[in-house]
Amino acid sequence: MPNNSLDGPVPDPWLAAVNVTVPTSVANDLDKMQGVIKDVMTQLGCPTCHSGRDLRITIARDFVVDPEGQVQPAVVAPLTR
Question: Which pTM value belongs to this model?
């Protein structure tokens, strides 16, 4: 069998889970969460709905401490394009 052949069906990208981590301040605000979902779906190419997508939203559980001793959620900074 050639190396470029597939052994099984091609995975559907719509079936893959999309992980979204938000700080508590966002998770506890319905308006902010609706904005998060809209932004995520826009970046996934479908800004008007999320049916069929497996969005897994978790509250940030990792924290970082800056040099001044301030503790903040370790949420990844957005990509700049």
Answer: 0.66
